[in-house]
Known about the structure:
By secondary structure, this protein is α/β, with parallel strands linked by helices.
Amino acid sequence: MAAWETCCVSMLDMWDSVAPGWERHADLVDRHGAAATRRMLALAGIGAGDAVLELACGAGGAGLAAAELVGADGRVVLSDGAQQMVAVAARRAEGDPRISAEVVDLTAIDLPEASFDAVLCRQGLMLLDDPGAAMAAILRVLRPGGRLGVATWDRRAANPWLGLLFDAVGAQFGMEFPPPAVRGPFSLGDAGALGDLITGAGFEAVAVAVVAAPMRLASLDEWWARVPDLAGPLAQALAGMEPAVRESIRERAVAAARAAAREVAGGLELDGSIIVAAGRRPAA
């Protein structure tokens, strides 16, 4: 498991290394999270003329969706701490003068105070050692009355589309994966805890909802070919393993996914669930 331990030394370097996979599969990411993103934007009240910041943007899907709502007088900044992710988001936004992209670390948001009407963060907060500190920084860059919209993955059991991959790695090595001490995608998989985090940071009018996010793919081969590329540390861990070990993990994962998947028109579906939440910076 040295590959996992190594990749966690520099999370930003790790996300840079998987940016090509996120660019290849940006369509899957956006499609998978579309319903939750729409709900997040609605809860955050994104509308015409807004200045919107997306943090931990990855391939920029949430910010691109926000740009469709802000109109000609609005603007959207796509940001991520990983430079290669920012480059991916910038390429996807190319040609839209309302959208810019820049490097902003979610753990240290170095932007002017009260400079945005809304801040979005889709699947970023749960990976932080101190999400409360990030929430305080988000509050600072919002204008009085500005809105926050966030999304995190629901608990692991509600997301077999990804949890089954982790289970297969853990079974292969006889250990929990990710290790308990490492923040992973399900670290904020509790709607009440996410709401408490936002409220504790000083936001008001906090709202939380759970949105179904099933993953639909043509086949289990496509699932294995695409999803591990998106799983950050898992992608890097798999890349560092011997081919025979990767194949054993693939066999375990595909067998489990076959038992969990449902047949749908055009392929199969694995359950997924996303927690979305919003809050408002007090007006005074």
